[in-house]
Amino acid sequence: MTFILITLFPEAFESIFSSSILARAQKDNQIKIVFVNPRDFARDKYKTVDDKPYGGGAGMVMKVDTIVAALESIKPKPYIVLLSASGKRYTQSTARKLSAKPHLAIICGHYEGVDARVEKYVDEVISIGDFVLTGGEIAAAAIVDSVARLIPGVINPKSLESESFSTFNPQLSTYIEYPQYTRPEDFRGAKVPKVLLSGDHKKVEHWREQNTKKIKNKLNS
């Protein structure tokens, strides 16, 4: 799968994409990450990519012409996502859908956002939550990470079977993973629950299901 990031600041991704699972996935040719900078498509000598908004207001807005030119330079045509506060909430279900796309382009907004006319050229508008970031790069990195791990071979498939927000558990509409423990068994008086040390797989499974429900109820309260 190829991720194409439309960004003014490709250097913002260097540490994230050059370590751990994402670095290994690139080395093994399971994913490819490329950057397209709208500034390369600016026509004036100053390489202008933003301008004052019509109607007035604070800040600057990324220009439609440079972003569209950047998008049209990408071959083959990818599935295009625009990151925006007005977009549809990003979920694990969205990540699964995007993981099936062979080429995924993500537009990283900056400043006060992008010209609204850009939406005409995208397939989907996404928001990662009800909060404001200084730019779309952090949100784009989160999407790349969550999508890449769903691509076959990137991580052990067993790791996907019982993790938070998966839909593999038919008894829970939204699955939240149970609490996890490892050594030491006793840390400053905080002990691992005895049932996890029992070796009784049925009791362990029941404990995990009950604690998953407790967490879910807490989140919904």
* Topology, number of strands: 9
Fraction of residues in H or I helices? 25-40%
Continuous helix count:
6
Rg measurement, Å = 21 Å
The overall average pLDDT, rounded, is: 90
Structural class: alpha/beta
Low-confidence stretches: 168-173
CATH architecture classification name of the largest domain: 3-Layer(aba) Sandwich
Through-space gap between termini: 39 Å
Essential attributes:
Trp Operon Repressor, Chain A; about 220 residues; alpha/beta; single chain; 2 domains; two-stranded antiparallel sheet; 9 strands; about 25% helix; Alpha/beta knot
Word description of this protein:
The chain has 6 helices and 9 strands. 27% of the residues lie in helices and 17% in strands. β8 (186-187) and β9 form a beta hairpin. It starts with a strand and ends with a helix. The protein is elongated. The chain has 221 residues and is an alpha/beta fold. The chain has 2 domains: 2-156, 3-Layer(aba) Sandwich (Alpha/beta knot), CATH 3.40.1280.10; 161-220, Orthogonal Bundle (Trp Operon Repressor, Chain A), CATH 1.10.1270. Strands 2-1-6-5-7 form a 5-stranded parallel beta sheet, sandwiched between helices.
